[in-house]
Design brief:
Mean pLDDT: 88
Order of helices and strands: EHEHEHEHEHEEEEHHHEE
Helix content: 40-55%
Structural class: alpha/beta
Shape: elongated
Strand order of the largest sheet: 2-1-3-4-5
Strand content: 15-25%
Number of strands: 11
Length: 220
């Protein structure tokens, strides 16, 4: 199982990342400042570092430069609120493998994490299955009873969340946080709308509604 180091001083974002990545089958360790990030990043215990630039004690950019100067090739995904071109250039020139700005969409983060882990030979599964549903994370292909189904990016993210928790009931809030990100509006009816769309494409009996609790992907 891949291990991901998260260097993030915002507790809300850090909690969201840890829960979301754990739900997708990865182990995480969280640190809150640049000194800890460098210390942990110099070990051989991790497959990926998700690094915020604005860390206390030492900035993320200083951490990145230090790791590369030490010869550490740990893949680094920058996750920051800084979106100026020079910030992106500085990080990439310093040895970052990827760069995302906040706020971010969780399904895009997952795709980037998978790409980085795939580059280093992680054992992250390529295909997820539950009952008649088969979901290929690399090709983004979905089949139901061997029938190809075309999904939008958000539909795919919602189905991926359901299939990773197949047989378990997920609340609207859980589905929103996984598929829409940490800054979702809890009063929105997006989950209802997208579940309805998925049922039309996958079959009415694939996703079960448990009134007052949430939704569950059937496993038979």
């Amino acid at each position: 199982m891949a291990r991901i180091l998260i260097a993030e001083d915002d507790p809300q974002i850090a909690s969201f990342l840890r829960k979301g990545l754990a739900a997708n089958g990865w182990q995480t360790v969280h640190v809150t400042d640049g000194e800890q990030a460098e210390q942990y990043g110099c070990t051989d215990d991790f497959n990926l570092l998700i690094l915020d630039i604005g860390l206390p004690v030492r900035s993320g950019l200083e951490v990145l430069r230090s790791l590369r100067a030490r010869g550490r090739r740990l893949p680094v995904l920058i996750l920051t609120g800084r979106s100026q071109v020079h910030d992106v250039v500085d990080c990439l020139d310093a040895g970052a493998d990827d760069y995302m700005t906040k706020p971010f969409r969780f399904e895009e983060l997952l795709a980037r994490v998978r790409a980085r882990l795939r580059d280093v030979g992680s054992d992250e599964p390529r295909v997820l299955t539950a009952g008649p549903v088969r979901l290929d994370l690399w090709s983004r292909q979905v089949t139901v009873h061997d029938r190809d189904v075309t999904l939008t990016g958000r539909e795919f993210a919602l189905l991926e969340t359901l299939i990773r928790h197949a047989g378990r009931v997920l609340s609207r809030e859980q589905l929103l946080s996984h598929a829409w990100g940490y800054d979702f509006d809890p009063s929105t009816n997006l989950v209802n709308v997208y579940v309805s769309t998925l049922r039309k494409k996958l079959g009415e009996d694939v996703i079960e509604t448990l009134r007052g609790f949430g939704y569950r992907l059937r496993t038979t």
